[in-house]
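Thread: 30S ribosomal protein S18, structure

OP (GT): Posting the sequence first so everyone is looking at the same thing. Length is 49 residues per the record. Can we get the structure tokens written out before standup tomorrow? I want them in the notebook alongside the other entries.
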Amino acid sequence: MDFKNTDALQKFISGMAKIKPGKKTGTCSSHQRKISEAIKRARYLGLFA
């Protein structure tokens, strides 16, 4: 998952801008880690409005 692809990352973020747990999104733990790292990186760079 690329941190620049904010459209794809939006479905892993709740309405309160929190990362959804893997049980709700249906991802395994290794992919969930990669997704959360990408979301945190995108937040740091200010890609989410």
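GT: Both are above now. Quick notes for whoever picks this up: The chain has three helices and no strands. The mean pLDDT is 95.
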